[in-house]
């Protein structure tokens, strides 16, 4: 359940980064420095990652209700992780993200590195899934 709340917090940081940063910094960082560019707020960029983050939070909730990860939920996590990585990589390689050029200068490499790190994590999840030790069948 805690991870579902973590995904929700990440979603809030993604939707309103300026407001969150201004609140956390006590007003030392203006919200306007983290305002998204017009190309980033188009229908093809922001909503897709919002949808993926909502699905990720929902998946964590489903796992909490089920009490454990099952094969279907593990494969859904792998697909979702790969999709999030691809989306962040696309953000880094297509158009501007932030309106402020100074913020943009640091954000694009950060999004690119984050995309790579998440993709490596996805590879680890795939490796663990294929090398999972299956329990022996119950005796008859």
| Order of H and E elements | HHHHH
Number of helices: 5
Give the low-confidence spans: none
Radius of gyration: 18 Å
Envelope shape:
elongated
Descriptors for this entry?
140 residues, mainly alpha, 5 helices
Summarize the structure.
It is built from five helices and no strands.
Describe this structure in words.
The protein has one domain (2-22, 34-129). The protein is elongated. It starts with a helix and ends in a 10-residue tail after the last helix. The protein is mostly helical and 140 residues long. It has helices spanning 2-15, 17-24, 46-66, 71-93, 101-130. It has five helices and no strands.
Could you outline the blueprint of secondary structure elements for this entry?
Layout: H1 2-15, H2 17-24, H3 46-66, H4 71-93, H5 101-130
